[in-house]
Amino acid sequence: MVLSKSFGYALRGILYVALLKDEGRNVSIDEIASRLSVPRHFLGKIMKAMVKAGILSSVRGQQGGFFINERTLGTSIGAIILLTEGKNYFSTCLLSLRQCNADNPCPMHNRVQEFRNGLQNIYGQTTIGDLLKEDKPGFINSITTGVK
Amino acid sequence: MVLSKSFGYALRGILYVALLKDEGRNVSIDEIASRLSVPRHFLGKIMKAMVKAGILSSVRGQQGGFFINERTLGTSIGAIILLTEGKNYFSTCLLSLRQCNADNPCPMHNRVQEFRNGLQNIYGQTTIGDLLKEDKPGFINSITTGVK
DNA sequence: TAGTAAAAGGACATTTATGTCTTTTTAAGG
DNA sequence: CCTTAAAAAGACATAAATGTCCTTTTACTA
């Protein structure tokens, strides 16, 4: 697959929390999971990972939940990919070869590198805050209708 | 971006057979699997799928094995991706949203579409024959050293 | 300070991708 | 024919990703 389901859940989850940033409340995992139609406990683990990575915050207890912190809006999509897909996402060889890089390219390497780099740059430059700025009327809807 | 192991096996398998096209013999699954260091039976299924799709040929029995046919060299990498990843590989939404296309784009869609299209075009235009033309001394080696 | 609501944590279950083994079919060669 | 070597087919096994459930910790509230 292009990106894992975990990535989609993570991005939609953090976006949902960020979208509600002016409501002055913490957002519970129950609310997020039900609005995004995503498995509650699985999402919980992913949100927890983002909290652990410091790009989102949470508090336990009554009135607890998730909320953005000083890093959230500046977090790049690439950082979330790193979290869910691991550090080799943009460098794994397309032919599953051991050694494949600019010095020792596989038969596909040079042909696609330009576009892989382009994608990586876009992902690295685009932040949660950037996506929020696109907040058109349909934006919330566009993240709440998940696939399957 | 990031393709399955099955795709890597398929491409390396068909390339290996194509590379030996002038030897005037059929190439057995045992030879391919051992040269590519790929699971024999798993590779067998993938090769069979390519035969079924008509982009490669095979004969059973003694002296049997795989060999290229009139379509092999003109087969695009994209066609093999279609076989191993399914028809939605280039159109699945990056946020795992149900509806995401040019008319109804998700927050990421427009930002990455240029590069996704670029990749898709490269994959669609590049054929097995094109890769063969790169047959430098290290080419066979470059497909035989698989990862993990 | 007891009750409650929330995240965190961990064990278990299911599904999908990957990998292995055995049997069947088929063709060539003696 | 009979043996042999090969792909094809299908059953089974393992690993990784995804999903569910239960318990623990923590903070608010009454």
Structure description:
The structure is a homodimer of 148-residue chains. With 148 residues, the first copy, chain A, is mainly α. The first copy, chain A, is 49% helix and 4% strand. Chain A is built from 7 helices and 2 strands; from the N terminus they run αααββαααα. Chain A has helices spanning 5-19, 29-36, 40-52, 77-85, 109-125, 128-132, 139-144; strands at 57-59, 65-67. Chain A has a two-stranded antiparallel sheet. In chain A, helix 1 (5-19) crosses helix 4 (77-85), helix 2 packs across helix 3 and helix 4 crosses helix 5 (109-125). The two termini of chain A are 15 Å apart. The mean pLDDT of chain A is 91. The A-B interface holds A 1-3, 5, 7-9, 11-12, 15, 77, 85, 89-90, 92-99, 104-108, 111-112, 114-116, 118-119, 122-123, 126, 131, 134, 139, 142-143, 145-147 and B 1-3, 5, 7-9, 11-12, 15, 77, 85, 89, 92-100, 104, 106-108, 111-112, 114-116, 118-119, 122-123, 126, 131, 134, 139, 142-143, 145-148. The structure holds a DNA duplex (30 and 30 nucleotides).
Beta-strand percentage of chain A? under 5%
**SSE order of chain A, as H and E?**
HHHEEHHHH
The radius of gyration over CA of chain A amounts to 17 Å
What distance lies between the first and last C-alpha atoms of chain A, to the nearest angstrom? 15 Å
Quaternary structure: homodimer
Strand order of the largest sheet of chain A: 1-2
Low-confidence stretches of chain A: none
Q: Give the integer mean of the pLDDT values of chain A.
A: 91
The shape of chain A, in one word, is elongated
